[in-house]
Amino acid sequence: MRYDNEVFREMAEREGVVAGSAAGDDAFVVGSHRFESRLLLGTGKYRDFEQTRDAVEASGSQIVTVAIRRTNIGQDANAPSLLDVLPPSRFTILPNTAGCYTADDAVRTLRLARELLSYDEVDHTLVKLEVLGDPHTLYPNMPETLKAAETLVAEGFEVMVYCSDDPIQARILETIGCVAVMPLASLIGSGMGILNPWNLQLIVEKATVPVVVDAGVGTASDAAIGMEMGCAGVLMNTAVAAARDPVLMAAAMKRGVEAGRMAWRAGRMQKKLYSASPSSPTTGVIGSAA
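The chain above was modelled as a monomer; its predicted structure follows.
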């Protein structure tokens, strides 16, 4: 994995970051949207809507993902709606296609989401695309993902896309016009962390759109590692919802993402194999002749 200053400078210039400085605008820009938080939080698997709201509040997240096939955001007028506790006036609702196994299903689901969310006369086009390959691994079906991405981009959607950690596939999705690529760190809901940092680093170094770690984060250090590698953000759900204390874990994740981003902006020291370097001055030591 390369952390050298040349790579850091290239990535810093790409994101408008002033190297070596914590000052200045460090907005998370996705398509036509700007955010302060780089943590995206899913809304599934919580005990109830109230716990969902408390976790989102603790995380500081401004983008919350919603599985349209599983969560009511207006489809059922007779059931409680997630939008009652997470109003679109405060949060960006990011509809996703969890549970879709074909391009056609995914496209149809996001068209429905746009209708459901456009009641305020604002065209809600920012979406998360995921087309799954099988129910056991929930690994992305990339041919169907590419097909759906082409259709959605052509229809004016701003597509953030869940994908394999394959730099070639990520490049194709970017060429299609997706506004963010979201490679999995490990299998959805596994909590295994970043299993292939080498591929993730290849994607980050070449991408000109935000790279968001998606799936597999288990704890705050996983989020920090992804951010230290230069990822633009981290999306998670199970790591928070399945924690013993989801609200406390959400707060921990907020700090992990922030710390990782700050460390990336600061630029880590060079690794030096077999070469110790004292942190204290070596001249003027008490008792020495110098």
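Residues 17-23 have pLDDT under 50 and may be disordered.
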